[in-house]
Amino acid sequence: MSSFFAFPLAVFFIFVAPLWLFLHYRNKGKAGQGLSYEDGQLLKSMTERTDKMQKRIETLEKILDSESPSWRER
């Protein structure tokens, strides 16, 4: 009965466990790096564009509120 478990355990510890550990820690290393420089610049650019768009929308809403106060109800 003990040899029944010994072979699968040996296969697991010789082949599966090292591969599993290698892949696990490789993924952890990639996840810990954070954003690349290019991704950071893209995020910064998108944030700036979003802020500009938000300001434009607020301005347009103020204009519409003054010219047509019931535009939101349509």
Automatic annotation (TrEMBL):
One of its GO terms (biological process) is regulation of DNA-templated transcription. Keywords: Membrane, Transmembrane, Transmembrane helix. It comes from the Bacteria. Pfam families: PspB (PF06667). The chain crosses the membrane at residues 6-23. InterPro entries: Phageshock_PspB (IPR009554). This is Phage shock protein B. The lineage of its organism: Bacteria, Pseudomonadati, Pseudomonadota, Gammaproteobacteria, Vibrionales.
